[in-house]
């Protein structure tokens, strides 16, 4: 990858001038895993490409949904974004500095980028009360003087819609929805500008999910948060996020404004994902054939060609990169479904 | 930062504890309750031994040697004419003191080594674990004998010897708990906040390890008492005429055919305390260890 | 009170129901987790039990299989030609499981035995339910694996469950459930652990297979949209009671019960930007209202609702069969 190509990364050129919080440029993440079928004493490993050429820009104040099925590399991307893992290739920047460096120096990054885990209960120390859990980041980052701590905790508890007496309770005594509220309150305590949420509303009943979604939307609006929301639910993505990035096998295959992408998906995988989402009284459409291939055994050419209903001969030969489509949209497909204003996609 | 007030619905909290159908653990566990009463009786007898015991435990009376149980000497007397009941009561003192303090030494040592092994990784963990493994390969009694051989005899020496011999098993369980806690999501969440590693250990790892350790302590007190009594029985623990149960059993051994109470009474006292302590320990573990809690 | 038999059943109901559930009540300790649930399932029909967690939808399926532990069960469940499932001796029930009714579990990964190959688990079921010989069972197993869309069925026979993906495991579960040619299939959230594209595959597979065999199917689902796509009829449960039931379109497009409306309004369709979050949560069993269980959260509650439980009534005067649209509300929409 040359610098010229990086400069032409699509989402950067068309957007409003808001500064980029995160920039991922051709990020790769290769893990050494035991070679399949190796002998008992063999130490042979092969490289597993969990991320392969990821390009993503998250601008200040944006709300972006990262959508993909299991095995798409969402979780690996998340760890790179949070600076928990260094990418093995490419550059992952936070406000222009490598994320790992930003994390290693001081607490500014940790304070600015807060995280809500999918397993909210597991992310809370079971031996601490809700009040102690929320006070921990307040104290750690020195947000309020000790005298104002209790008041701020109460304020946060109130803001996420928990009852006042929750401060003295332990997470084990709370319901699934309430535990997620605690996790959100704890994340907000450090007064972050970026909130990263991993499946923060999945596995809940629809009414609890609706309560949390309205809360998150209110928070994003009122506090001007930049939201990176990882989800598998396109309905949630379209409600909460203005932008969407759809991942398949370690690469972002389509990005753009959520409504535009979901209304007329350009990538056949986005279209299949869109069609598979349950819709009232629509007949269940023909699903994609087969399953997501192993990242150890990527199909030749386009990684989606083995399951793509619209694959042509050249799809099995050339690997399309994420290239600009129109109006802030980008797609990694040789033959996008909506060809209006399409440019020739780059070819590796 | 201003926090606009929430317009979201405020759901009521579920009750902290289900009030119905959950009787007190003393009613639900009658064996535990009985065992707790027995253990408490031992502790009281040991604490107030001078007030409870009818005779001086080391006062020898050659006019009343090897008498069977009677009104004056309810548990009989031994070959020196010492009152066995008084000696059993004072013996509880030594048993409990040795049991508790040696377990505390073992737990403290086990906590340090277990934490170090669980958190360090690499060659240090390897070395520590091989050390623990080699300690565990020997029964605690054999180890205690070895330490006594180095330290010499006496109550304080027995406490240290038994304590050192119990470090191995404690270290093993602490390390297992540390390994389990270390990979929990809340540890990663704390590191994500850039909280320094040692503070994460202090605030999040330690409290989650201490509690199961405290439960272990209650269970292992009986093991420590057994080991210390065995040392005395072998004649290498506390020295006569200290009223120690193991010692008393050993002294009565030669007269067992015509004065069986001399060994039987302290033996019975020892067995009863050990059974009571293990029932109490198991009850506490089952009640407070979430992994074993039934129907939870 | 909300017993369906209190409404006259017309004899010209086209299909004789394969399953007729009357007054199913399940107590666990002091809590009544199902309260007089009655429903009928026509032959060849697909029915969705929908509701939130704690509504008791899975409990119905488990109670029908007689797999409920530590609970007191009352009521009747008449399976056509087999008698009352809830009263049969265990010996007869063992024979019915797999051959007349079978269940597809939510988590195939833990429902399959990790120490046997999937082929062996399927042939065991085949030999037990159909009395096949070893060779016959193997041939039939390969055939079943092919029909549920497993590539290389011969090779997959010797795979252990952990060697298969979640979607493949669920296909194996479907094959095992279908092995004895049951005429009633109970699918308990068969796709909630799977990705959406795989979910579509599995739901289509279950529907195609039941249709091809003329079997009936009860789906336990939490996704109303998926229920509308896959089932002829929908039964909406709230806190252990049926609040509305009937043909899918009637229930979802002409909902009478406020809870059904609320549930539907929480479903986020792609492109929808409005979402009104309902208030509160399901009350715990110790604080369940004596009247309508939804009264505490209902936007249309009347004073009467708190004290008096509403019976299930037909939504239209001319509809009287148990398969028609019914609801239980004092102040319907």
UniProtKB/TrEMBL annotation, chain A:
<dbReference type="InterPro" id="IPR013563">
    <property type="entry name" value="Oligopep_ABC_C"/>
</dbReference>
<feature type="domain" description="ABC transporter">
    <location>
        <begin position="25"/>
        <end position="274"/>
    </location>
</feature>
<dbReference type="InterPro" id="IPR003439">
    <property type="entry name" value="ABC_transporter-like_ATP-bd"/>
</dbReference>
<dbReference type="InterPro" id="IPR027417">
    <property type="entry name" value="P-loop_NTPase"/>
</dbReference>
<keyword id="KW-0813">Transport</keyword>
<dbReference type="GO" id="GO:0055085">
    <property type="term" value="P:transmembrane transport"/>
</dbReference>
<dbReference type="Pfam" id="PF00005">
    <property type="entry name" value="ABC_tran"/>
</dbReference>
<dbReference type="GO" id="GO:0005886">
    <property type="term" value="C:plasma membrane"/>
</dbReference>
<dbReference type="InterPro" id="IPR003593">
    <property type="entry name" value="AAA+_ATPase"/>
</dbReference>
<dbReference type="GO" id="GO:0005524">
    <property type="term" value="F:ATP binding"/>
</dbReference>
<dbReference type="Pfam" id="PF08352">
    <property type="entry name" value="oligo_HPY"/>
</dbReference>
<dbReference type="InterPro" id="IPR050319">
    <property type="entry name" value="ABC_transp_ATP-bind"/>
</dbReference>
<keyword id="KW-0547">Nucleotide-binding</keyword>
<dbReference type="GO" id="GO:0015833">
    <property type="term" value="P:peptide transport"/>
</dbReference>
<keyword id="KW-0067">ATP-binding</keyword>
From TrEMBL, chain B:
<feature type="transmembrane region" description="Helical">
    <location>
        <begin position="94"/>
        <end position="119"/>
    </location>
</feature>
<feature type="transmembrane region" description="Helical">
    <location>
        <begin position="258"/>
        <end position="284"/>
    </location>
</feature>
<dbReference type="GO" id="GO:0055085">
    <property type="term" value="P:transmembrane transport"/>
</dbReference>
<feature type="domain" description="ABC transmembrane type-1">
    <location>
        <begin position="92"/>
        <end position="281"/>
    </location>
</feature>
<comment type="similarity">
    <text>Belongs to the binding-protein-dependent transport system permease family.</text>
</comment>
<dbReference type="GO" id="GO:0005886">
    <property type="term" value="C:plasma membrane"/>
</dbReference>
<dbReference type="InterPro" id="IPR035906">
    <property type="entry name" value="MetI-like_sf"/>
</dbReference>
<keyword id="KW-1003">Cell membrane</keyword>
<keyword id="KW-1133">Transmembrane helix</keyword>
<keyword id="KW-0472">Membrane</keyword>
<dbReference type="InterPro" id="IPR025966">
    <property type="entry name" value="OppC_N"/>
</dbReference>
<dbReference type="InterPro" id="IPR000515">
    <property type="entry name" value="MetI-like"/>
</dbReference>
<feature type="transmembrane region" description="Helical">
    <location>
        <begin position="209"/>
        <end position="238"/>
    </location>
</feature>
<protein>
    <submittedName>
        <fullName>Peptide/nickel transport system permease protein</fullName>
    </submittedName>
</protein>
<dbReference type="Pfam" id="PF12911">
    <property type="entry name" value="OppC_N"/>
</dbReference>
Automatic annotation (TrEMBL), chain C:
<dbReference type="Pfam" id="PF00005">
    <property type="entry name" value="ABC_tran"/>
</dbReference>
<keyword id="KW-0472">Membrane</keyword>
<dbReference type="GO" id="GO:0005886">
    <property type="term" value="C:plasma membrane"/>
</dbReference>
<dbReference type="GO" id="GO:0005524">
    <property type="term" value="F:ATP binding"/>
</dbReference>
<keyword id="KW-0813">Transport</keyword>
<dbReference type="InterPro" id="IPR027417">
    <property type="entry name" value="P-loop_NTPase"/>
</dbReference>
<dbReference type="InterPro" id="IPR013563">
    <property type="entry name" value="Oligopep_ABC_C"/>
</dbReference>
<dbReference type="GO" id="GO:0015833">
    <property type="term" value="P:peptide transport"/>
</dbReference>
<keyword id="KW-1003">Cell membrane</keyword>
<dbReference type="GO" id="GO:0055085">
    <property type="term" value="P:transmembrane transport"/>
</dbReference>
<dbReference type="GO" id="GO:0016887">
    <property type="term" value="F:ATP hydrolysis activity"/>
</dbReference>
<comment type="similarity">
    <text>Belongs to the ABC transporter superfamily.</text>
</comment>
<dbReference type="InterPro" id="IPR003439">
    <property type="entry name" value="ABC_transporter-like_ATP-bd"/>
</dbReference>
<feature type="domain" description="ABC transporter">
    <location>
        <begin position="19"/>
        <end position="264"/>
    </location>
</feature>
<keyword id="KW-0547">Nucleotide-binding</keyword>
């Amino acid at each position: 990858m040359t610098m010229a190509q990086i400069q032409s990364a699509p989402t950067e050129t068309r957007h409003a001038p808001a500064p980029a919080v995160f920039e991922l440029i051709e990020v790769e993440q290769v893990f050494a895993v035991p070679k399949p079928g190796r002998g008992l004493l063999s130490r042979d490993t092969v490289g597993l490409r969990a991320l392969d050429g990821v390009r993503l820009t998250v601008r200040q104040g944006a709300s972006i949904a990262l959508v993909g099925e299991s095995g798409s590399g969402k979780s690996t991307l998340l760890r790179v974004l949070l600076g928990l893992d260094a990418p093995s290739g490419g550059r992952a920047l936070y406000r222009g500095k490598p994320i790992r460096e930003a994390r290693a120096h001081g607490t500014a990054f940790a304070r600015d980028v807060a995280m809500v885990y999918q397993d909210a209960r597991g992310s809370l120390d079971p031996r601490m009360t809700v009040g102690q859990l929320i006070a921990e980041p307040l104290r750690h980052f020195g947000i309020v003087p000790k005298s104002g701590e209790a008041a701020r905790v109460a304020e946060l508890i109130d803001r996420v819609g928990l009852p006042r007496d929750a401060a003295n309770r332990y997470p084990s005594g709370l319901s699934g929805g309430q535990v997620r509220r605690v996790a959100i309150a704890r994340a907000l305590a450090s007064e972050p500008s970026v909130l990263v949420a991993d499946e923060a509303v999945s596995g809940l009943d629809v009414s609890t999910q609706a309560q949390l979604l309205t809360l998150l939307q209110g928070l994003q609006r009122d506090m001007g948060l930049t939201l990176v929301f990882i989800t598998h639910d396109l309905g949630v993505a379209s409600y909460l996020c203005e932008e969407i990035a759809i991942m398949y096998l370690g690469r972002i295959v389509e990005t753009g404004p959520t409504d535009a992408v979901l209304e007329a998906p350009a990538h056949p995988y986005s279209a299949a994902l869109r069609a598979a989402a349950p819709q009232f009284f629509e007949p269940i459409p023909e699903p994609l054939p087969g399953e997501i291939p192993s990242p150890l055994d990527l199909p030749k050419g386009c990684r989606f060609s083995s399951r793509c209903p619209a694959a042509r001969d050249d799809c099995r030969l050339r690997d399309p990169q994420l290239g600009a489509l129109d109006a802030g949209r980008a797609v990694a497909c040789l033959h996008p479904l909506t060809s209006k204003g399409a440019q020739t996609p780059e070819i590796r | 930062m201003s926090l606009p007030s929430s317009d979201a619905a405020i759901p009521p909290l579920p009750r902290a504890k289900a009030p119905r159908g959950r009787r007190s653990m003393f009613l639900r566990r009658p064996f535990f309750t009985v065992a707790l009463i027995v253990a408490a009786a031992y502790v009281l007898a040991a604490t107030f031994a001078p007030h409870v015991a009818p005779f001086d435990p080391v006062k020898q009376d050659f006019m009343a040697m090897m008498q069977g149980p009677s009104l004056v000497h309810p548990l009989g007397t031994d070959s020196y004419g010492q009152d066995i009941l008084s000696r059993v009561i004072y013996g509880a003192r030594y048993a409990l003191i040795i049991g508790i303090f040696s377990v505390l030494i073992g737990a403290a040592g086990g906590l340090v080594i277990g934490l170090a092994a669980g958190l360090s990784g690499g060659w240090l963990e390897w070395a520590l674990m091989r050390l623990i493994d080699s300690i565990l390969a020997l029964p605690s009694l054999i180890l205690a004998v070895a330490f006594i051989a180095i330290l010499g005899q006496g109550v304080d020496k027995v406490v240290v010897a038994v304590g050192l011999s119990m470090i191995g098993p404690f270290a093993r369980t602490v390390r297992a708990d540390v390994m389990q806690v270390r990979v929990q999501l809340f540890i990663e969440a704390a590191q994500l906040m850039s909280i320094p590693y040692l503070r994460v250990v202090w605030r999040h790892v330690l409290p989650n390890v201490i509690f199961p350790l405290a439960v272990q302590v209650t269970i292992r007190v009986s093991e420590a008492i057994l080991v210390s009594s065995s040392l005395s029985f072998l004649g290498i623990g506390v020295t006569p005429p200290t009223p120690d149960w193991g010692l008393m059993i050993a002294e009565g051994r030669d007269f067992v055919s015509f004065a069986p109470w001399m060994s039987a009474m302290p033996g019975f006292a020892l067995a009863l305390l050990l059974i009571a302590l293990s029932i109490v320990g198991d009850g506490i573990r089952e009640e407070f260890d979430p992994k074993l809690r039934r129907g939870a | 009170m909300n017993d369906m038999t209190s409404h006259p059943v017309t004899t010209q109901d086209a299909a004789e129901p394969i399953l007729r559930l009357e007054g199913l009540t399940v107590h666990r300790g002091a809590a009544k987790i199902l309260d007089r649930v009655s429903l009928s399932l026509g032959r060849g029909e697909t029915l969705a039990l929908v509701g939130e967690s704690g509504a008791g939808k899975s409990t119905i399926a488990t109670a029908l299989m007689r797999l409920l532990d530590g609970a007191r069960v009352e009521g009747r469940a008449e399976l056509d030609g087999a008698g009352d499932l809830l009263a049969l001796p265990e010996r007869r029930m063992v024979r019915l499981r797999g051959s007349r009714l079978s269940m597809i579990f939510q988590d195939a990964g833990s429902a399959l035995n990790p120490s046997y190959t999937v082929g062996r688990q399927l042939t065991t079921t085949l030999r037990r339910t159909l009395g096949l010989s070893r060779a016959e069972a193997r041939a039939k197993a390969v055939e079943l694996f092919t029909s549920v869309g497993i590539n290389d069925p011969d090779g997959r026979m010797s795979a252990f469950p952990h060697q298969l993906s979640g979607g493949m495991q669920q296909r194996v579960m479907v094959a095992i459930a279908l092995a004895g040619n049951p005429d009633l299939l109970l699918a308990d959230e068969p796709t909630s652990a799977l990705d959406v594209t795989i979910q579509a595959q599995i739901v289509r597979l279950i529907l195609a297979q039941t249709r091809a065999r003329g079997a009936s199917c009860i789906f336990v689902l939490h996704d109303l949209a998926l229920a509308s796509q896959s089932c002829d009829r929908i039964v909406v449960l709230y806190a252990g009671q049926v609040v509305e039931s009937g043909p899918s379109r009637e229930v979802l497009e002409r909902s009478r019960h406020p809870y059904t409306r609320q549930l539907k309004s929480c479903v986020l369709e792609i492109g929808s930007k409005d979402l009104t979050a309902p208030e509160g949560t399901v009350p715990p069993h110790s604080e369940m209202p004596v009247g309508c269980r939804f009264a505490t959260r209902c936007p249309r509650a009347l004073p009467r609702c708190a004290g008096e439980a509403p019976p299930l009534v037909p939504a239209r005067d001319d509809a009287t069969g148990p398969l028609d649209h019914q609801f239980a509300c004092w102040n319907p929409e």
